[in-house]
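Subject: for your reference before the review

Hello V.,

The reviewers asked for a structural picture of the protein, and I figured it would be easier to keep everything in one thread rather than splitting it across files. Below is the amino acid sequence we used in the manuscript, unchanged from the supplementary table.
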Amino acid sequence: MGHGIQDMGCRTHAGHRARTGRQVWDMKRRTQYMGHTPGTHQAWDTGHGTCAGHTLGTGPGTQDTHQAPGTEYTPGIAGRGRALGTHRARTGTGNRHRARTGHGGAAPGPPLAPGSGRPAAPRSAGAPRRARVARGAGHGARCARRWWRPVHPSSLGAPAGTGPFKSGGGGGRARARARARSRRCPRPPRTCRDAPWPPRDAAPSSRPVTRPWRGADPAPLGIPAGPCSAATPPCLLGHRPHPAGRGRRSRPLAPRWGTRESPEMAFQRSHRLNLLRLVVLLLVALAGIKFFFRDSFTLELHKHVSKDSGFWGDTGDVVQDVIPQSQQVLEVPAAKLMTLKQKQQVPRDVSATEMRLVHLDLKGAAPRVSYLEQVFPLLSQLGANGVLIEYEDMFPFKGELEILRSPYAYSEEDIERIQQLAEQHKLEVVPLVQTFGHVEFILKHEKFQHLREVERFPNSFNPHVPGTLALLKSILSQVIEKHRRSSWIHIGADEVFHLGEGMDSRNWMSQHKGDVGTMYLKHIKEVLGFLTAQYWGLRVLMWDDMLRKISVGALQESGIAKHVSPVLWFYAPDFEAEQIVQFLTKYVESGFEAVWFASAFKGTTGPAQAWTPLSYHLKNHLSWLKVMQAVPRLAPLRLQGVVLTGWQRYDHYSVLCELLPVSIPSLAICLQTLVNGGFTEEAKRKVLDVLGLESVQLEQSTCEGRGVFPGVEIYHMVEQVNGHLKESILKALEEESAIKGWFSPYHRKRQFGNPRNMESFGSKVLKLHEDWESFVRDLRAQLDRIYFPDTVEEWLEENVNPYLDQLRDLVRDYRAIIRLKGRPKAT
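And here is what came back from the structure prediction:
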């Protein structure tokens, strides 16, 4: 059975509001019950009471209705039957209700339009001022209490001059409850209350339709979008309809218009809006950042030394030799090239994506920790962000490995101090432990000679002897345990000379039908397997020269690409970038995802080189920059970092190369070249400012100015030794005619000479000798401040004594023969 409960606010005679100052509401609610025949419930709520009409149908064609005189009832229409006037409704408890008007009189019912059930004309201004309807207990009261909703008054069909109806029962208690409820009723906006109701026969799209359940689309239901209008009273859009076939009430939704928000609801809505504004602002900011820095990762063409610039002195032909104009870019697309020509780009800062490690080769001339305290801040200032430390015999090995320690090896406290200094200056420490070749410092000892690949050569391990891997595990474990802060380790594995020449290797290749490359990869896999199993997360590097000779298929089958990154090294000043690109292409095909490059700032121009050639190493880095331009073409391969190697010995048995203080200007130039993407004016200024120099002569490999970098005294002294010691002594011995004529090797051997002729050159020789001896004493004192005694003795023996000893011998013989006063020669 369908029930319709409608609450209608009465108007005053002249169409004015109630005198009480309260806005009159119209409420309407429809619901349906199952198991009954159509009928109606109607109620008009004036804000002070309720006029309820309840019409029940008990079966087809039967109605239990009570009509007041002058009213008309239209049966047979479910949910549309109207009982206007005095009536009695039978409720669930048997109570009957009589509606009484506010002035106690009955009002005639409204005339209805034929066949429509709607009022024939709008209510006139003669309506009663106020309607007071008392509602009693029972089903009718519950209906009016539970099923109310806003509704336009014209939908009730009240004609002009009609008022509320009479109904009995209820009492004052019901009226009090009705008044309390009326005060809680939401008040719609003026536009909603005064909006005219559309005629019953209007098109479905213009007729009011109850709002669907939350989340449903109102368009299919005929609810037009837009503001409150006669076609769509917005007050109808604030409540859910009662679902058909269910007898429980539905919860009314909060009205969309005409309600006042609570402070909590307003705060929540404001909070959501603020969050939305913040998200939009962040997106705009990110878009702006991306726009302004859209070209920051574009590698600019290398900027080279200006030939006309006198700031760095006479550079000779460096410009033409370093970067020919036609070779500055490998293969740049036309569109990209036009962009580079049109835009003045800042040189690419490699630091944005790559690491720059400075190689400290400690197998010779290992500096004291006190000197590293001065060097590490300089490295960080020049653009380095890590150090690659090749300890060799300078590590404080313990136990059975103690035999590997140098007499001047660092202590455990020194190792800890080095790492603290690096951390303080934001330098990553990467230890290097040779695991295959260049292990002379191990295999030179008789205890480990049985691990040699070739018995007479101490260069490389025999990978087939079980003791080899056990020894390597012990060495690696001790080094890694002292470098817990490090996230990288370098396992060397370069230049494995004579691999495959030993008897064990020949037998293995014969039995397994393998080659040297397969045997090499087998050993590397064993080392990597130990590191990945024992030190999870530790990343591994290795030199790549041995991998260049191995096929792509063998590299793929070995699976080492998942656990190690190759470091491509090339130290020549001018090399073709495409030569390196070929190796990179091979590594991409082999499965490697990241690579490193290795340049050199010293130690690659000769095993006995004492003075660092600046232009040579600058050219090497400029060539590497051209290779870096080609890396993006080899995606997904990426460049992880660059190692600036500074070799101190070619191997464990060779003599010392350039000392570190001597090579600091070269290191500064090379680092700044990588940082700035070329040897730019900015790089020049940075080098001079940091080192405290006035100028640098690239071709002459000299610096002007006193300098303020660590070890600058040694730099200037070695410069004197390299440029003047040999020259001055040779000039005194070979070009002085008096010495050649009256003090030849024959005279000195026979202790035979004329004092008169000897005195003609003696004063010069004695003065030269005294000056150089004084200089060497000062040089030794400076070397002792930075290096251990064995390094000082070795360097002086190799670079000073070969020339100064000649002068010393000459002075010794001169003094001995001059005392003889021209006696006969000895037989």
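For the response letter, the relevant points are probably these. The chain has a mean pLDDT of 73. The two ends are 152 Å apart (CA to CA).

Happy to draft the paragraph if you're swamped.

O.
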